[in-house]
Amino acid sequence: MNLNRALRIDETLEDSIFLWGARQTGKSTLLKMQFPNAPYYDLLKSDEYLRLSGRPALLREECEMLREGDVVIIDEVQKLPVLLDEVHWLIENKGLRFILCGSSARKLKRCGANLLGGRALRMMLYPLTSAEIPDFDIDKALNQGLLPRHYLAANATKRLEAYVGDYLQQEIIAESIVRQVNLFTRFLQAAALSNAEIINYTNIAQDCGVSAKTVKEYFTILEDTLIGYFMPAYAQIVKRKLIAAPKFYFFDVALPTYILGRAPLRKGTVEYGHAFEHLIFQELKAYLSYSDKRKQLTYWRTIDNRYEVDFVIGNAEAAIEVKSSANVVSADTKGLRAFAEEYPQSKLMMVSLESRARIHNGITIYPVMDFFRRLWAGEII
Fold it and tell me: What was the pLDDT predicted at 1?
């Protein structure tokens, strides 16, 4: 199946770009489709890696043959940070444009690599979204995730197993980020249990048998390697005091489900509801990035835990609650109603499994696919 990705680099490219994204999000496929004639350096290939690591100046010598404005792609650039000095020279002296692709900027930051001093824009490629998949299947997305190889598989269990085992554990450990496999495996379990929840480092540390400092470092590793994201709390206080700690989400909805052995998910269960909320987070995060809205995605919860809104966009421009129910009742909207008392300018929405959109006490209740369609049409925010 040919997927039309929402990120269109070739339509906006005027500068060089760092294109980041977790492994298997489809970065290489996207670049080869959008830039079929660009010189392509793939550092996952051992011969290419050895050739350039032995003599980085080869990149400069080969690219000096190109014309001003030509695009050059370097895939998995974090594997050979020294190339960035050559890239810098070629941008400055030859006017070339580079797309520098990778799954983690952590190694570049840790070794003090040349990050081009603002000469390259930063872009992200996320897993697939509803707008990129014909006949999008909610339950399939929740159980198999939205990495292209996983979603398109008849059964993604083996691929999820390989992804978690070979990448999330072994590759991170191989890069000397962590050294104790058993501790990191325990941490992944605890992180999966904390997915879409407010992070309490002390409680997780007790579950894992490590210090709270180590847990915080492990979460930072997941964020730096693009395996997960922190979502901050909304901070503008009007009357009610608010919780300030962030929530954490894995980058793909199926990862915590697989790690915890919860598949297949079934409607009506707590686990299904958590995954459904995660899917909405994933869709909102990708949309806000691809549409260049420059609006922060946060959550809102009062310090007494009486009221909560799952997602707040920008400066309270929109408040979105998620309920995996086919029958939303008034009690389900109490968080949104409390939010409206403090931020009356906000658009109030509920994403649900209802069959038709409706308005209840000023709150628009959307069926999930209707919400997705309107989101990507620019009608939500």
Answer: 59
Helix (H, G, I), strand (E, B), or coil: what is residue 331? helix
Tell whether pTM > 0.90: yes
Q: Summarize the confidence of residues 56-63 as an average pLDDT.
A: 97
Joined together, the tokens standing for residue 101 give 């692709």
Contact 342, 239 (CB under 8 A): yes
Q: Is 103 helix (H, G, I), strand (E, B) or coil?
A: coil
Q: List the one residue out of 57, 55, 48, 95 whose CA is nearest residue 76.
A: 48
Count CB-CB contacts under 10 A for residue 359.
Answer: 9
The reported pLDDT for the residue numbered 60 is 97
With a CB cutoff of 8 Å and minimum separation 6, the contacts of 100 are 16, 17, 18, 19, 74, 77, 84, 87, 120
Strands lying side by side in the sheet with 197-198: 197-198, 247-250, 228-231
d(CA 191, CA 59): 41
Work out the burial of residue 379: count CB atoms within 10 Å of its CB; fewer than 13 is exposed, 13-18 middle, 19 or more buried.
exposed
Q: In one letter, which amino acid is 108?
A: L
Q: Is the CB of residue 72 less than 8 Å from the CB of residue 91?
A: no
Contact (CB, 8 A) for 320 and 280: yes
What rounded mean pLDDT belongs to the chain? Answer: 91
Inter-CA distances, 146 with 244, 279, 286, 354, Å:
30, 9, 12, 23
pLDDT tens per residue across span 260-301: 999 899 999 999 999 999 999 999 999 999 998 889 999 999
Note the pLDDT of residue 174. Answer: 57
pLDDT, tens only, 226-261 = 999 999 999 988 888 999 999 999 999 999 999 999
DSSP 153-188: SS--HHHHHHIIIIIIIIIHHHTTS---HHHHHHHH
Burial (Cβ within 10 Å: 0-12, 13-18, ≥19) of residue 70: middle
d(CA 289, CA 360): 30
The alpha-helical segments, DSSP class H, found in 145-269 are 148-151, 157-162, 172-174, 181-193, 201-208, 212-224, 254-259
Q: How many CA atoms lie within 13 A of 12 on its CB side?
A: 11
